[in-house]
Design brief:
With about 210 residues, the protein is an alpha+beta fold. It contains eleven helices and seven strands. A seven-stranded mixed beta sheet has the order 2-1-7-6-5-4-3.
């Protein structure tokens, strides 16, 4: 059970991350082409073919900042379990700190076939420092927050086009989008998606997700 103080801290974080919802997904396409994409045949148009190729590997604007080689590269991350892989990506250092504080490193590294929606450092920076510090220092609240970012199955970009998935926190999150533009809970944009690790698929997002109170 979360204490009243924990609930207030989580509510404060929720209020803080609600403010940036005016951010629009870069290149978001709400056209009705997704149905035809699903039923694509050998006569696929160039745009449909491009989407299929994209789905086979990482995509998104933030992918350009990932190192080309070494442990923090896509090839390097694919060799390590997800918590270890994230620790080699400088843009995820706040998330890694939170995972360590919650004692979830082994849980994430030992899980099989999961999807992690990983907020960047900038995503955590949207939360007022005082509120973030309260959450980081409350293990129960922090665990609830972090496990809400994990789904117990590997999700492909096609599954993100319109889906509702149960998280390890036991509530659900929703996804929508197409091509290289996806949103989670209509709040977070996927800025680098479909990143493989040894035991998980990672979608790096620009806003911290909040479980329902």
């Amino acid at each position: 059970m979360l204490t009243i103080r924990s609930r207030r801290a989580l509510a404060a974080v929720a209020a803080a991350v609600t403010l940036p919802l005016a951010l629009t997904a870069c290149g978001m396409d709400d056209s009705g082409d997704s149905a035809s994409d699903t039923a694509a045949t050998a006569d696929s148009t160039p745009s449909e073919t491009e989407e299929k190729v994209t789905a086979d590997g990482p995509f998104g604007p933030a992918c350009a900042s990932v190192p080309k080689d070494g442990a923090g590269s896509f090839d390097g991350m694919a060799k390590d379990p997800v918590a270890t892989a994230a620790s080699n990506n400088p843009a995820l250092s706040t998330l890694v700190t939170a995972v360590k504080k919650a004692g979830l490193v082994d849980t994430l590294n030992n899980a099989q076939n999961i999807t992690v929606f990983a907020p960047t450092n900038d995503a955590f920076a949207k939360i007022p420092k005082a509120d973030l510090d309260k959450v980081l220092n409350d293990k129960a609240t922090l665990t609830k927050l972090l496990t809400y970012h994990v789904v117990g199955q590997k999700l492909t970009p096609q599954q993100l086009e319109s889906g509702t998935f149960e998280t390890l926190e036991k509530s659900t999150l929703t996804t929508s989008g197409s091509g290289e533009s996806y949103k989670v809970n209509d709040a977070a944009n996927v800025v680098c998606g479909n990143v493989p690790t040894a035991n998980a698929t990672v979608y790096i997002i620009d806003t911290v997700l909040m479980p329902k109170m």
